[in-house]
Design goal:
Layout lengths: L23 E10 L9 E2 L2 E2 L5 E7 L2 E10 L9 H4 L1 E4 L6 E6 L5 E7 L4 E7 L3 E5 L6 E9 L4 E9 L1
Antiparallel strand pairs: 1-5, 2-3, 4-5, 6-7, 7-10, 8-9, 8-11, 11-12
């Protein structure tokens, strides 16, 4: 049995994709017919695409299938997350006691930091309403960090102690 060996050119391609505020990705395939030996330039509306990254696969000598990555960037909202809008911390400013209140039972932790970033108080949250005493701390600004039971950051609130 005679076989004809064909030469294949190996091409190594490094692709780096950085997503910044991309809220959806669309994958599509387009078919372009060309003579492989003649080559062709990728175009949109008759003009070259600058910076396009795509993979080419030769199906036979006349067809190239390319996969194009299309990013749809949408404007991001600045509204609070659902959980953040269900949290009340009062009174703020406070003289001694701060109340952390959720609309529903909540399990997690709260941590109080001073303005230098020193952790000064850690406690659990396991009900609708929890009170934190700042009585022994100096007047000034503090950061109250709320985490859920899995350690995920929920909200950071500035607290002013008078």
């Amino acid at each position: 049995m005679n076989r004809t060996l064909q030469k294949y050119k190996r091409v190594k391609i490094k692709v780096t994709i950085i997503l910044l505020f991309a809220t959806s990705i669309t994958f599509s395939q387009q078919l372009a017919i060309s003579n492989l030996n003649a080559g062709f330039q990728e175009t949109t509306n008759g003009t070259g695409i600058v910076g396009e990254v795509f993979n080419e696969y030769s199906i036979n000598s006349n067809i190239i299938v390319e996969t194009i990555l299309d990013f749809n960037n949408n404007t991001l909202s600045t509204s609070e997350s659902d959980l953040e809008s269900l949290i009340k911390v009062y009174p703020n400013p406070t003289s001694n006691i701060v109340t952390i209140e959720f609309q529903n039972d909540f399990k997690g932790t709260y941590t109080l930091y001073d303005v230098l970033g020193k952790q000064i108080l850690v406690n659990t949250l396991n009900s609708i309403k929890t009170q934190a005493s700042l009585e022994t701390y100096d007047s000034g600004m503090y950061l109250l960090v709320l985490n859920n039971e899995y350690g995920k950051l929920i909200q950071i609130i500035k607290i002013l102690k008078e």
